[in-house]
Each structure stands twice: as C-alpha cells, then as structure tokens.
Amino acid sequence: MMSQHHWLKARPSTSDGNHLSPGHKVSFSDSSKSSNNNKRDSGRPSTASNSRPASPANPPQRRSHSQQPPQNWSDSRNLQRINRQSEALAQQKVISPQAPQPKPFLIYHDSFLPLLGPNPTLQLLIDDPRAPYFHEAGVFHPPTNTLFLTSNELEDSSPDAVTTRQKTIVITKVELFSPTDFTRDKVRCPERNYMACGGTNYRDGLILCAQGSLREPSGLIYMEAKRPHKTVTLLNNYHSRPFNSPHDVIVHSDGSIWFSDPIYGYERGFRPKPQLPQLVYRFDPATGDIRAVADGFGRPSGLAFSPDEHTVYISDTDVVHGDGATDYRRSATVYAYTVMWEHGAPFLANKRVFCYADTGAPNGLQCDVFGNLYAACGDGVNVWNGGGMLIGKIQIENGCTNFCFGRNGEIWCMGEHKLWRVQLGTETRGALLGI
C-alpha cells in the first residue's frame, strides 16, 4: 500500500537510456490540486479540424489527408523498419518481442510514419518495485489533467477483505502539470469500490467496472473525478441475475454504456460461481434498458468504437485464464461488428475477425481519430489500420497491460510496476476525447 508522504525520485528516460529531469520528485500525499472525432480514413493524419461525434442521425464526413511521412524518419534512433517479406519467409529474422529493443517504434507499413510524427519518444515515468499499481483502467480526465489507474490484485489482510479472499485493488491518480512534473496519490473513496477494473470518462467523472466480491455484487459505478471521489452504483444486475466480473467499459455518443463481462473474478476466487454466460452488454441509463449485444466469447475483454461509431471492436483474451493458465490454441483475437439500427435500437451484425495478436492477448482497445485501432499486447501497443493490417508497434519491455490517450499525441501505458509515456505526432489523438 502507498504511504502518504513517501518520496521517490522519478527519472523519466528515453528508450536509449538518456534520463530527463533527474531531480524530479514524485509525492504521495493527501493533497489534491485541483468530442469524439467522427473521421475515419486511411490511417494517416491530416490538418482537417475535428467535428462532433457521429450518430445514426449525423453520418460522418470523410477526412482528406495530405501529410506525408516525415522526411527524417530513417535518421531517428527510435524507429526500425520491419521487412515484411523477410519476416514472412524466414522465422529466424523475426525480432523477438520478449527482449528489449533499442528502437521501440517498429514500422510494418509506411502509413504508421505520419502517426509517429518527426520525433516519437518512449519514456519511463514511474518504476515502483513495491507492487503492480499500473494494471488496468487508464482514464485520462481532461478537466483536471489527471490520469486514473487501477492496480492488479494486492494482498489485503484487513478483516473486511474476507469477501475478496484477502485481496484488494487500489485506484491511483496521477495529476499532471507537465510531461515530467506530476504528483501521484491513492484515491480514497468514501464508499469502497470492490475490485475496480476498467474505466472510461463519463459526464464530469468516470465509470469504473466493479468486479465485486463473494458477497458484494459486481457492476458499473460512477466516481467523481474530484475529491472526495464520491461514487454511485449505476448497474449491478441483469434482470436480477448477477454479473460475473465486468472488465472494460465504453460510452456511445447516444449516452448508452457498453461493457464486457468475463469470469476472471470467479477464476481468481473472489466471485461466486457464474450465473450468466460471458457476454457484452449495452445499458441505457436514460431508460434503464439492459441488453446483451454479443456472445460466443472465451473471455470478452477490451472494447472500442470506431470514430464514426459504425463499428465496435471487441477483444477475446481467452488465451489467458484467470488462474494464470496460458493456452496459445485459444483466442487472442479482436472481432469487429457492424452497429445496425432497427426499431430505434442498435444491434450488432457482420461479426468478423479483425486481427489476431501475435504476442500475448489484446487487452485494452482504443481508436485514434483516423480509424486506426490500438491494442495493449504482450510486446507493447500494436496498431492496425481500419482494414485490419498491422502497420506498427510500440514495443515496451515486458509488454503493456492497458493504455489510454492523453493530449496531443500522448499515450500513457501501464506495465504493472511501470508507467510509461509515449509521445507520437501531435495530430495522432484518441477518438474518445479528440484532444
């Protein structure tokens, strides 16, 4: 657990080992300082301005693009081109994703270059060997310039942790004053958030997936972004049947909330025997309507809408089970569905394999404003264009468990004990926020 006034030296470093701001300090304290883009194109940035989110009544307009790959890309010590033909023909030439690479940005197709910008960087912001505080969620809250993160399971010997099998999950917030100036603090909610997992921005705060415990129900909670971080339960059952352990959540521009519900909590011993299949749901807070929209998964996990919201991506991380067992014959796949509307309600059709992660499992998913899909995988962040072609990778030592976009090309990557900052081109922005 975090102590309230413990100081650590934070030495953000580039991928080649050069440290930045060696005197910077990170504080653990109780003090608190207080548009979706609907364009989808070939995966290349342009100078066109953003516009309001797409909806069934507001179809998207295509974005023109003119920006060319940066002229100095071959001179950057952070970039490495992958020879796709050699990779396909000679296995020994494939770069090992398990070993740290001197050049973290791997180019599989030239359309990845404009996304990187002229000088992409990878920085290690925090390395905390005490516990895996940087595991899931990853929600950047623009009004407060704060990053919210959830930990992996931590040991908890307190008497009230018996229902979670003596485990707990800590919510951390990182208040950002500049890319290398920040404070870090544990979120202390008046109400306990049982085993929080994935999250997303919602209204003035954020939604967190509460996985629940052996006694407390799982579901969705709304948490205020500012202290004292009050919480409200939005949903905790499917027509009186308990959810398994909600994992990830996204919000549609019509106000509906979509979330995945695998059985990881049961496999890890802090949830009862499942009473529902592993599904993806849509919840409408305005009407109270809760419905299943997708099934047939091994372990449904990450979710993302395309910028025009005509497509929803859902990852199946069945390759890894909650007990730690790994079976590479099982799914590590992202599926794409077309969002259809009939009788005033959405449904999903045209399920197809969008991509398969070659390393680990595609956990968190997000699109940029150009329609490219990013996924946290076993070797870092993998990037596919809208057609499902792998165009690039951001290799991170020991992989990436989840990530989120920040401002102007920033990506915050979680690696259990480590928090990384990636800087891409300033036009490469997340579709969720469009900033």
Describe what you observe in this structure.
The chain is mainly beta and 435 residues long. It has a single domain (84-423), classed as TolB, C-terminal domain (Neuraminidase, 6 Propeller). The chain contains three helices and 30 strands. It has helices at residues 84-89, 113-116, 264-267; strands spanning 7-9, 25-27, 79-81, 105-107, 121-127, 136-141, 146-150, 154-155, 167-168, 171-178, 181-186, 196-202, 205-210, 219-224, 231-235, 249-251, 257-261, 279-284, 289-294, 300-305, 311-316, 333-342, 345-356, 365-367, 373-377, 380-384, 390-395, 402-405, 410-415, 418-423. It has a six-stranded mixed sheet, with no helix packed on it. It has a four-stranded antiparallel sheet with strand order 5-30-29-28, with no helix packed on it. Strand 22 and strand 23 form a beta hairpin. The longest helix is centred in the first third of the chain and has 6 residues, at 84-89. The two termini are 33 Å apart. Mean pLDDT is 84; it is low at 1-44, 46-75 and 92-101.
What's the gist of this structure?
With 435 residues, this protein is mainly β. It has helices at 84-89, 113-116, 264-267, and strands spanning 7-9, 25-27, 79-81, 105-107, 121-127, 136-141, 146-150, 154-155, 167-168, 171-178, 181-186, 196-202, 205-210, 219-224, 231-235, 249-251, 257-261, 279-284, 289-294, 300-305, 311-316, 333-342, 345-356, 365-367, 373-377, 380-384, 390-395, 402-405, 410-415, 418-423.
